[in-house]
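Structure record:
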Amino acid sequence: MQVNSPSPAVPGSQDIRRIHFISLGCPKNRVDTEVMVGKALGAGYQLEDDPAESDVIVVNTCGFLQASAEESIDTILDMAAYKQSGRLKTLVMAGCLVQRHADELAAELPEVDHFIGTGEFHRLTDLLATSGSRLAVDTPIYVLDHRTPRTITTAHHAVYLKISEGCDNKCAFCIIPTLRGAQRSRPVNDLVAEAKALTAAGAKEITLIAQDLTAYGYDQEPRTDLADLLDGLSGVNGLRWIRLLYAYPRRFPGRMLDLMRERENIVPYLDMPLQHINDEMLRAMRRGRDSAFIRLLLDTIREKVPGITLRTTFIVGFPGETDAQFEELVKFVEEYQFERMGVFGYSQEPGTPAGEMPGQLPAEVIEERRKHLMGVQRKISRRQQRKMLGQVIDVLVEGPSDETEHLLVGRDKSRAPEIDGLVYINDGAPAIGDIVKVKITEAGDYDLVGHVVPG
């Protein structure tokens, strides 16, 4: 994601410090970038959408997997070229990859002027104003609040709300607790205040994000939980959709399901990464729950919230995964018929317990399993999509299609931004940001097509 300038820079001006942002990785990283943008604007910088015309370029990196680390390095090197071909004076590398490999990056990338970790991004403009150490990396303890300057870089009708920082889970394959620090939840009243401000600025949909949504509030005194937060957010006037991403299955406040069923603006959608279903694999992954718990939880969710859209992700090819264990996962997916699903091939990551485990599988076996499981899910999705034919659903209009100017695209309640399919609107002229009635006339494997009907 490149952050575009809301207004053009003054041509030929030498007084305006022009700054260009690139945000890589997850929505949590995007919110961090939005805070840096807000800080920069408050300090007198001018956003610039052309890196060649920028005095400062900030790349907020992802370091979760090797592939994302490579993308981050490639992006930094591409931007460094503007020191020769453009007006670039200062190149900043921020985010998870810096937190993970700060010393090595500083030694190998002399082109970079500042390295800023995940706990120091809010100090961007202060660091730019100093000529001290290139490295600003420490144990992450920072937590933003509703008063923190933040410039929305998504469409204003669909925004993210980060409810906590860090993570206390110890999954064997994951480096995030090292990169993001311990769990740090924001107070309910602070989040409600930000949600009110976002809604007043045009938000129709707010997507709650954290590394572990269902751990929200467990680190606070007195303890709160996600149900308490949903209770407060659902009362925000004008907020039409509240969506939940990244709900870890270890802790699960049952009252949140009652609220999801009872409150019209809490979307019946839940993203809950399960990672596997075989008990030996779950223990090796250090997931904290067994298959019996997961099955009971899924059954309870579907019983309490009829019609809910369940999204999950799985990891295939984890060290030691046998053919029989993989087949158990395939049968589980066929049995539970998830509405949305993603599959990751296991990536051996330095610094994680899984990276040192015996039984590392060949890359070709991992990729074969990933493709097979996604093929199973494609058939499931196709059947579910076809059941939508003839139905009239509420759709949040996102804007023109990337494929053709003759189509609009949007999402219904069953589709999260950026990760799920779209609803293409081929007849009608609703405004961007409106929620309209659409009758479905065509169904693909993941996308739908329909036309606007009177509400």
